[in-house]
Automatic annotation (TrEMBL):
The keyword NADP does not apply. It comes from the Bacteria. One of its GO terms (cellular component) is plasma membrane. Residues 247-369 form the GGDEF domain. This is GGDEF domain-containing protein.
């Protein structure tokens, strides 16, 4: 059962139990203990017990759908009038019931109640009361839910105080009140547990959504590689670590040769597949601590910590062999001199890339502070 439905049923049970305490003491008990025949006592007790059942259904509908439809408003008004009428009937003096005028008024009130029930049943919107709907689309009614729950929870203590006042400190119905309070307390604990379960579930869901958003924010949507923004942060952090540990760190920029022609010939979908397949193939050829990112378009960039230019050129050779569809790429390689900024390092790698493309593509060029070396 969904958590929200379980909470609604628990709320309905709490409210119904609070009302049941009042009905049991003021309606059912008088019907049973008075000097009547057993069939008569059962008949009189059946009315308030049926009211309890209808009341529980009404509360469940009310908490799930609110008073948004005319049929629901008619049904709620009819049931409320019936409950008030039955409770008031228990306190009406016997001599008034024998009066013809008063008896006519009560009969008219009773007929009015059933008239409201009939109007609700005949309303076109009556069939939609039990139609399934998402929890988010249901109107939330704290102004109904909270007062009803408070009233139900206080029904037991209020009855205890009432009987202690009326019977000079004695509580004739102490056992019934104790049982009712225990049941209500158990339902409230169950309601709290359901709430805790929902909060925990939402916390897990929010954490998972946050993780997915973090992945989406840091990854390229097509290839799944690190995106440009995240790459900038990782490069800065990598150079800081290399500076502290005096590591040789190299950056290489890769550009797939004649990618526009490939797109025009095979279509953009084929071009996207080429980028994704190349990214997957290249990722399998680098170390786990190397960082491969999509730099933009058909350009990729890789950070190679603790790696010199010659080793980087060997790594790019493996990447070139793993490039799909017999495609080639040009690459520029630059090793950090421990003085230049991250932007200057990438600029030198870019300059080496342009030299590789100028020399005919399908090759790598190693950039040095003052010159570039073809490999």
């Amino acid at each position: 059962m969904p958590t929200q439905n379980r909470e609604r049923l628990l709320d309905s049970a709490v409210i119904s139990c609070g009302y049941a305490l009042v009905v049991a003491i003021f309606l059912i008990k008088p019907a049973v203990v008075q000097d009547r025949s057993i069939p008569a006592a059962l008949t009189l007790a059946a009315y308030p017990m049926a009211d309890l059942f209808i009341f529980a259904l009404l509360i469940s509908l009310l908490l799930s759908g609110g008073l948004g439809t005319q049929a629901m408003r008619l049904l709620a008004l009819a049931q409320l009038a019936l409950l008030v009428f039955d409770l008031a009937y228990a306190f009406i003096p016997a001599f008034l019931l024998q009066d013809s005028l008063f008896s006519g008024i009560t009969n008219a009130a009773s007929l009015a109640v059933y008239g409201l029930l009939g109007a609700a049943a005949l309303h076109p919107g009556f069939t939609s009361l039990t139609a399934p709907s998402s929890f988010e689309s249901r109107p939330q009614l704290p102004w109904i839910r909270v007062p009803l729950l408070w009233t139900a929870a206080l029904a037991g203590p209020a009855l205890l105080a009432y009987e202690a006042w009326r019977y000079d400190g004695k509580v004739p119905d102490a056992f019934v009140i104790a049982v009712g309070c225990t049941v209500i307390f158990g339902l409230v604990v169950g309601r709290l547990q359901a709430l805790i379960t929902r909060v925990n579930s939402q916390s897990v869901e929010l954490a998972e959504q946050a993780r997915r958003l973090e992945v989406l924010a840091s990854s390229d949507g097509l290839t799944g590689l690190v995106n440009r923004r995240t790459w900038d942060d990782m490069l800065t952090a990598g150079l800081e670590q290399a500076g502290r540990q005096q590591l040789t760190t190299t950056v290489a920029i890769i550009d797939i040769d004649h990618f526009k022609h490939y797109n025009d010939t095979h279509g953009h979908q084929a071009g996207d597949r080429l980028l994704k397949t190349a990214a997957a193939g290249w990722s399998a050829q680098i170390r786990h601590h190397d960082v491969l990112a999509r730099y933009g378009g058909e350009e990729f960039i890789v950070l190679l910590p603790d790696c010199d230019a010659a080793t980087a050129a060997e790594t790019l050779g493996r990447l070139r062999a793993a490039t799909p569809d017999n495609q080639t790429f040009s690459a520029g390689i630059a090793t950090w001199n421990h003085e230049e900024s991250a932007d200057d390092l990438v600029a030198r790698a870019h300059a080496a890339l342009y030299a590789a493309k100028h020399d005919g593509r399908d090759r790598s060029v190693i950039a040095e502070p003052n010159r570039s070396v073809r490999v």
